[in-house]
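Hey, sorry to bother you again with one of my protein questions. A protein chain has come my way and I'm curious about its shape. It would help a lot if you went through both lines with me. I owe you a coffee for this, so here goes:
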Amino acid sequence: MGIAAHHVSHPLPSPGRSVPSISHPQIHTQAIDWDHASFPTLLHFLRLCFPLCSQEDQHALLASVLAALAALCQSLAVDSLTRCRLADPLLCGLAKAVSLVHLVMDDFAQRSDVLLAVPKLARTLLLHLHHCLLTHDTVAAMAASNILRVFPPLDCLYYSLFLLRWTSRCCDAALETAVAVQLVKPVTLSSIQTALCSSCVHRSLLTPFLGDAAFTLSLDRVANDALLRPFFAQFAQDQLTKTFEVQTELGRVELELEGHCVTCCPAQAILLLFFAHTQRISLNELVCRSPFSAATTKRIVASLSCCVSKDGYVELPPLMRDIELPSLLVLPLNETGQEKEEERLLCEREVYQSWVMKLVKQKKRVSFEAVLKYVERNVAGGNREEMKKAVEDLIEREYVERDAGNDAMLVYARCMCLFHSSMQRHAF
């Protein structure tokens, strides 16, 4: 098994002799083979040995487990995620990491804060939680969320993974809400609840977390498209007062081709429809007919794994099986400076909004400028532009609203409707 354990036994003492002390089993942590095939057996053995070890050996064993967990999290590092469901090798590694976490928490009876020292563990557990939510495993999801509560919030990554589930129609609304309540900030929770309540997503809900402007099309641009026209007919009456945009990398489309199904996003479907009456189109023709820019069109073509590109032409050969195209929604999983900045801005916005709501609730009716000055007085070093965005976000989410007779005045909204704004973005 790759682990050495020794227990010193003693013969029965003769009458009149003192009873020798019984030694603890000795665990040689350097001999533990964490990569051994019998991993469950190894964990079982450690569970049995830990209570019997000396305090010194217990500390050494705990350190060895945490080091193994850190090495595993490092090996499981994924730069980006392009599919909703995780690959089997990654799932095996995640299951192993979760087993080590439970060994520390449940069997070694350690406080959860010892896990804070393990690099990338929070992101590893978030990926595991993502899988639990995809499979609607309530018990495992709640267990993972309970562990994650000890870590600082990772709203950007959490919300990005949520949108990947949401756009793939893999969400269990009740379970998603129960988990999010424990792990994300109120602003993010509000966005998640709004997305779960409707197929329409407010523009503010998609930023700053994700969304590539390269794939965004105006409703006017796609209104005449055979694929999209029926879907957007329901918004025709609102077009006079609202502006819609289609974020085409989000969503799920199923195209039937010769008895087989191609699952893709709307952007990929738009290009695949050009092959309705032909199997071969030049790349130049695709670029000319595409509603996207030339560079974006080429990015989409590169993602069409069901097609073959050669000599300036793109060909769609007969399908032999159902196929799921890689997502154009690429989620970066490694922490970046941009993500840290987004987290900072999100926290900053929450602070601004708390002061805005305090004043508006008190005054019931107050000018936009007075609100900004009030926040500036109470938040040292505040950014006025971010304050304006925070107020506009509250208006769009209908916590407050503009006075019907004077746009410069704000009033407290007694009823909070989910969708009533001057600008909305629709995601499939």
In short: The two ends are 51 Å apart (CA to CA).
